[in-house]
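Long-time lurker. I teach an intro course on protein structure, and each term I like to show students one example going from raw sequence to a predicted 3D structure in token notation. This year I'd like something fresh instead of my usual example. Would anyone be willing to generate the tokens for the chain below so I can use it in lecture? Attribution to the forum is fine with me.
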Amino acid sequence: MINYNEFYQKDITLRDYQQFAKEKIFSNWNVIDNILYQMPTGTGKTRLFTSIIRDISVWGLRHNIKYRILIVAHRSELIEQSSRSLDKYHIIHGVLAGTMKDKRDLTQPIQVASIQTITHPSNRCLIKDLQFDFIIIDEAHHAIANSYQRLWEYCPNSKKLGVTATPWRMNNCGFANIFDLFIPSMSIKEFTQKGWLAPYKYYSIPNNSEIIKSIESIKDFDIDGDYKISALTEVVDTLQIRAQLYNSYEKYVSRKKGIIYSLSREHSEHICTQYRNCGVSIETIDSKTPIKARESIIKAFKDGRIDVIVNVDIFSEGFDCPDIEFIQLARPTKSLVKYIQQVGRGLRKNGNKQCIILDNVGMYTRFGLPDEDRDWEAYFYGKTIEELNKKGTHNSSRITREFQEEKISEGNETMVLIQDVAKQMTIVTDSPSKEIQDNETEQNLRCFSITSKNFNSGKYLIEENELGFYIINVRTKKRLFLTKTKTFHGGIIVINKEKNRNYFTIIKALSSDTLQTASSRIIGTIVKEGLIMKFTSFDKSVIDLNVTV
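-- Reply from a regular --
Happy to contribute to a lecture. Here you go:
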């Protein structure tokens, strides 16, 4: 009997959470065959399973066993990414994909393959003859598809590992019928707090927007359950809406490097023409773009010769470019997978960047913000968003934001700051500066981090400087003093929502790791009573805060 724990080798190129994941996967393979592992976009899924493959190969060599390993994906970008990762580890392999025929080598025990090629009827004997011992499925939320089911049919005794950032299907079928175990990693919020993902600013249209109302009135859906492109085109691909797209680009991300997600090839061309006429260096890519032309555009984008790429679902999966500075959503969807995968393209860590997300179609009102706490395990078992909302166990329901009602005309809707996940800062000074005493600006904040969207609601933030804690209305910039600073310098501020949904505890900690330790300190509490928030500091002084705009 093989003990898979023995396969594990410490890999100094991995981060601590990847080491932990690898140990857990090997350990569970002792008792089950099929594991689905969830990690957010940009946290190193490819690096993780490449290290696992290396460990399997090394153990096999030591015991004179040549294990056959298959890495399978559904897109050429993912296949190329896996192949490059294996090359970096000096792992010799073959590739079974129509776009990489020059790397075809069936003599190698390790193969990277497209699901379309490996399960094609002409290759049925091939996969049965190879009888892979281990199968790694990249972007495994697609594993429910019939083509992937053949892997279980052809290789029933293999150990299988699926990796995905988004274990969710629009038909809510779940994954428990093919995978024996679901293992979630940390949340996007935790990865961001620990510095593994980039912080971000999220701008969108108000929840009472005419655009959102028009999108939600659509009744025409495709067979997969998402909106029909023809119906979306009538609502979103208009002169007024495209003008709003460009206006938000010019206001928030002008001359920055980013990706725009569009509806269709025609929609992409319309956006591209409008931006290019305004002097933006921009190109468009879709499934019909010739491979060489696509590669040339992507290279120019990565090299900085192109600022913006408009695409139709091409960059939702398998595209890595860490220095992306903004993501612009111009395509409404009913797919949580598309939403998370698209915004995730901008959250990959790159120095001190803060990504800007421009949600011009109000997707946050349907799915919540990128770092919402999502019960991926419930989705694994086929629970729906609606079921979780009814039980009160899920936060990514339709979010009602507190914006003052106003009459808004199509295409002239003001973008507002919904969430600011700022960089964590630790600043130590000997005494308050005169500048801080005279002018309390955001640049002088000692620290700034909010994790509760229920309290923040896209509208209020809590900040700290040398003088004390303040609450700030992000729209009016009005600031109200809460209490003096009596804590250590630096760290983070966290708002914890208690069981009573109107009751919040404000905690100051050195970092998210020390939040539950004795070194953290309760600053006070906030109780919402209608349009009044009652703040009670730790010394019991009470301040009533009018929260109307």
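Some talking points for your students: The first helix runs from residue 16 to 28. The first strand starts at residue 34 and ends at 38.
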